[in-house]
Amino acid sequence: MEGDCLSCMKYLMFLFNFFIFLGGACLLGLGIWVIVDPTGFREIVAANPLLFTGAYIMLAMGAMLFLLGFLGCCGAIRENKCLLLFFFMFILLIFLAELSAAILAFIFRENLTREFFTKELKKHYQRNNDTDVFSATWNSVMITFACCGVNGPEDFEAIPHLPYSSLEKAVVTPEACCQRELQSREGMFVNKEACLSGNERFQNRQGCYTVILNSFETYVYLAGALAIGVLAIELFAMIFAMCLFRGIQ
Q1: Where are the transmembrane segments (predicted)?
Q2: In the chain, where the domains are located
């Protein structure tokens, strides 16, 4: 009976580690995609130190989980106490790090409010100055998501205007808010002159905060559910690893 129980734990341990292996592969792939994606996210990630750090942390965590899942599977099948102990200690550190990151994300969630982004935009945005990292990032966001400002074009009224060609008129709306045939920097403007002269028909009027929130709302809940699932799998894997370690003679 004891042998059957040990055999059952061994295969359950293998199953849990297989899921950890798959989770690590997914995180690794997602981290690589965020860093090399050509549709605008690469510039956004590179321009924001927090996102830049987060992308590489996700990459590192994915690689570690990928390796740990592999080692855990090998340790379970081969009944190697050394591999199982190494697996348990390493996954415990990862579990605590992920739990700490989740707590910090909850504590600092107020930094992602509409008011925070509006204040930062009005303070640092320099319109078409792509040599400025903050401005280039915002321009990429507005072009990629076909949106304008945080709340809408009115966010730019407090930002110093630029004279526009022979019209000698202050331009409130930046070029990045003008409608394009394709949502990329290479996309042709639908009607740039009409947009910059104030014709709302050729401007993206919706704020980026709402557009991005709606775009990622489903993925945020999915990511949260995935994170809870990964933590639960890691917890059970540690329990089975220790039980299997104690059961091996």
Answers
A1: 12-36, 56-77, 84-108, 219-245
A2: 1-111, 117-206
